[in-house]
């Protein structure tokens, strides 16, 4: 239990005075413990293995804060680690900033911090910088987290839309839509029961393994908000090439599909938090696929399609189970607010 | 599955050759429209079969005048509007519930959620935007009855429930219609029964085939329609026998009849159709939001340039409308067919490739 006399966050905990100091020393530091953070300096001094780095930041406002398969703390750490990894960098350090609504329970804050710390530790990416703000009731919904991260670029790895060429294959490391469907089914206002679990996970280890051991990866992205449909459309728009995917090859859990059907979502538009899409050369595709399948986060990996010639405007086209064809468009974008 | 699909395709090919003309089949239901696009079925059909998308998306056909009433109610701070998510983007004559950004508009997944909202907020009056065909009407009737039994007086219903048969008849009475046959809605037929279409077959000699929403059922349904057209023996047939019976769901029909009676109604794009809607019976008048708040739904004028009416009647395809994909998109819908994800224009915009799937 907390050493603070109160069990809820007060505005004064963000005021920069004694309560802020207590909050940081008694509640935050012990969870995220590492030497750099313990200095409580204004900025972290870093010694990185390379001067060529990637830098990324992302904010997390997921609702509910705790969901099957994760929580906002784990999500905030995994999300930024994944962003660095798919850019071709080995995640090195993270910063973590909290915006807390007055009245938020210490008990929940500690649970979230523990989860963030565990995830960071498991992935060997220390949280070396942080910040805490408290806002009055109603100015935020319980807690928002921002993480930023620096990663060192893997030598010889240069990913980009411009590398994508006709004939390249598309690989996904597992089932789609698990995060979004798990979240929506757990929303208090939805009341839809299921045992779906979010895929929330850091894929950096697997991604780095692929990039370090097999040549031929052209581009990678984690299909989070907007799902696979948004990521594929982004690839199409930026590369100018069309993509053809085969419905029967896209891995989907039957429960996720059923929940999506009942609630009227296209599973292709539903968010993932432990997935990556890799555009790879045709020669390397099978090797990358088998490397994925030998890793716990890639056991359901599949080649789902390829880069094809564009007839008029570049599009994502899906070959359906009955052999029909249809366009997969960029989702409208608000069907599922606060998914991450 | 593929084998049965090939068989149905072979039958359709044969009939198309024998008849030597274009066959226009209307899928009445919006869920069929989406399933046909989502599975790429159009592209697999013989070129002579043309699918027309009918008025069976309840959100699409909800008149702007109805949305205007809902928007007016949303201004009342003592009111909570409970609505299915699809209704949020439906345009009224001046804005939509989504653009209103009102805190007293809540999205619900079921009528029981709306009733619960009333129980949880005794200081407010909940107005449930009750839309849908015969499929969702029983669910509204159930909560109206519950509200009456439990004395939940802060629950009201703004009913826009529609009846599918009067709309199908209205289409067949149009001078220029091109409809050869109907692929009838699976969900509605569970409630009203497949025999409900017998008068249409008798009066207008059009095949009425009920199908489910799996691609195989849709294609089998189309095959059956072709078979009937070739033999010139139109009849009612269901290829959705697992859940659709000739008489339908008697309990659901009973509860609809207890709470609702037929009334004339405005349909976006089609205008006023006699006896095409359900309104609450007098004994439940205190739950009728129109009466409680003294409001009336006025038929709104359709937007100039919008050709949804012709699209709903199967007279043109969406790309033939000058607004399609330009001033009217799923992000900025103008006409009813673009508003709902089940609307014809939204499905064309989302799933069909320009020039390729268009017939």
Polypeptide structure, described:
The complex is a heterodimer of chains A (340) and B (359). Chain A has 340 residues and is an alpha+beta fold. Helices cover 31% and strands 23% of the residues of chain A. Chain A contains 9 helices and 13 strands. In chain B, helix 5 links the parallel strand 3 and strand 4. Chain B has helices at 2-19, 30-38, 58-61, 64-74, 97-100, 111-120, 137-150, 164-173, 186-192, 198-204, 215-231, 250-259, 289-292, 308-312, 336-339, 344-351, and strands spanning 23-29, 49-56, 79-83, 105-107, 125-132, 155-161, 181-184, 208-210, 236-238, 260-267, 271-280. Chain B has a 5-stranded parallel beta sheet. In chain B, strands 4-3-5-6 form a 4-stranded parallel beta sheet, with helices on both faces. Chain B has a domain at 308-351. The longest helix of chain B is centred in the N-terminal third of the chain and has 18 residues, at 2-19.
- Overall geometry of chain A comes to globular
Instruction: Briefly note the structural class of the backbone of chain A.
Output: alpha+beta
CATH superfamily of the largest domain in chain A: PurM-like C-terminal domain
The helix-strand sequence of chain A is HHEEEHEHEEEHHEHEHEHEEE
Number of domains of chain A: 2
Q: Biggest interface between protein chains, with counts per chain?
A: A-B, 24 and 32 residues
Structural class of chain B: alpha/beta
Largest sheet properties of chain B: 5 strands, parallel
Beta-strand share of residues of chain A: 15-25%
CATH topology category name of the largest domain in chain A: Phosphoribosyl-aminoimidazole Synthetase, Chain A, domain 2
CATH architecture of the largest domain in chain A: Alpha-Beta Complex
CATH class of the largest domain in chain A: Alpha Beta
Query: Roughly how many Å apart are the termini of chain B?
Result: 26 Å
Helix content of chain B: 25-40%
Oligomer: heterodimer
Q: Which blocks of ≥5 consecutive residues of chain B have pLDDT under 50?
A: 355-359
The helix count of chain B comes to 16
Report the mean per-residue pLDDT of chain A as an integer: 92
């Amino acid at each position: 239990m907390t050493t603070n006399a109160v069990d809820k966050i007060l505005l004064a905990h963000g005021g920069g005075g004694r309560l802020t100091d207590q909050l940081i020393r008694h509640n935050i530091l012990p969870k995220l413990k590492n030497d750099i953070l313990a200095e409580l300096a204004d900025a972290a001094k870093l010694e990185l293995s390379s001067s060529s780095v990637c830098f990324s930041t992302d904010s997390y406002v997921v609702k509910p804060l705790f969901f099957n398969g994760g929580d906002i703390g784990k999500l905030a750490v995994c999300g930024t680690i994944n962003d660095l990894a798919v850019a071709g960098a080995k995640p090195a350090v993270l910063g973590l900033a909290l915006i807390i609504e007055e009245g938020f329970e210490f008990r929940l804050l500690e649970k979230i911090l523990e989860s963030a710390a565990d995830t960071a530790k498991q992935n060997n990416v220390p949280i070396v910088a942080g910040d805490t703000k408290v806002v009055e009731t109603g100015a935020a919904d319980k807690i928002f987290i921002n993480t930023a991260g620096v990663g060192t670029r893997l030598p010889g790895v240069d990913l980009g839309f411009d590398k994508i060429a006709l004939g390249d294959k598309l690989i996904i490391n597992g089932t789609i839509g698990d995060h979004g469907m798990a979240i929506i089914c757990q929303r208090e206002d939805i009341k839809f029961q299921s045992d779906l679990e979010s895929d929330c996970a850091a894929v950096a280890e697997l991604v780095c393994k692929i990039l370090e051991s097999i040549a031929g990866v052209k581009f990678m992205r984690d299909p989070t908000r907007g799902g696979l449909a948004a990521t594929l459309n982004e690839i199409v728009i930026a590369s100018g090439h069309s993509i053809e995917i085969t419905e029967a090859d896209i891995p989907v859990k039957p429960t996720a599909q059923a929940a999506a059907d009942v609630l009227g979502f296209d599973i292709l538009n539903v968010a993932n938090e432990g997935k990556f899409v890799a555009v790879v050369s045709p020669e390397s595709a099978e090797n990358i696929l088998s490397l994925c399948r030998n890793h716990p986060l890639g056991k359901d990996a599949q080649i789902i399609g390829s880069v094809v010639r564009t007839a008029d405007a570049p599009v994502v086209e899906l070959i359906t189970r009955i052999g029909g064809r249809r366009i997969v468009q960029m989702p409208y974008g608000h069907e599922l607010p606060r998914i991450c | 599955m593929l084998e049965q699909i090939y068989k149905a395709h072979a039958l359709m090919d044969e009939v198309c050759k024998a008849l030597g003309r274009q066959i226009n089949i209307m899928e009445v239901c919006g869920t069929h429209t989406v399933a046909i696009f989502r599975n790429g079925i159009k592209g697999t059909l013989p070129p002579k079969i043309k699918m027309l998308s009918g008025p069976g998306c309840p959100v699409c056909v909800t008149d702007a005048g109805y949305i205007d009433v809902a928007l007016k109610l949303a201004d009342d701070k003592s009111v909570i509007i409970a609505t299915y998510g699809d209704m949020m983007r439906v345009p009224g004559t001046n804005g939509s519930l989504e653009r209103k950004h009102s805190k007293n508009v809540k999205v619900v997944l079921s009528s029981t959620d709306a009733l619960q909202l009333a129980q949880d907020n005794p200081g407010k009056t909940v107005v449930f935007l009750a839309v849908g065909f015969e499929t969702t009407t029983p669910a509204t009737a159930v909560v109206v009855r519950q509200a009456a039994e439990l004395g939940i007086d802060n629950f009201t219903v703004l009913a826009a429930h529609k009846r599918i048969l009067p709309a199908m008849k209205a289409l067949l009475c149009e001078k220029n219609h091109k409809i050869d046959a109907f692929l009838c809605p699976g969900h509605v037929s569970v409630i009203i029964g497949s025999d409900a279409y017998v008068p249409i077959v008798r009066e207008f000699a059009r095949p009425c085939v009920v199908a489910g929403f799996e691609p195989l059922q849709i294609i089998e349904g189309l095959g059956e329609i072709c078979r009937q057209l070739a033999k010139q023996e139109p009849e009612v047939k269901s290829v959705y026998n697992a859940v659709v019976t000739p008489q339908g769901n008697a309990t659901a029909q009973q509860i609809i009849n207890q709470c609702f009676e037929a009334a004339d109604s405005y349909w976006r794009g089609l205008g006023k159709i006699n006896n095409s809607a359900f309104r609450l019976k007098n004994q439940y008048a205190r739950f009728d939001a129109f009466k409680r708040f003294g409001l009336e739904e006025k038929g709104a004028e359709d937007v100039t340039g919008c050709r949804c009416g012709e699209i709903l009647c199967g007279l043109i395809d969406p790309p033939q409308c000058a607004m399609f994909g330009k001033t009217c998109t799923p992000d900025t819908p103008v006409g009813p067919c673009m508003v709902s994800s089940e609307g014809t224009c939204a499905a064309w915009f989302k799933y069909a490739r320009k020039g390729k799937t268009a017939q």
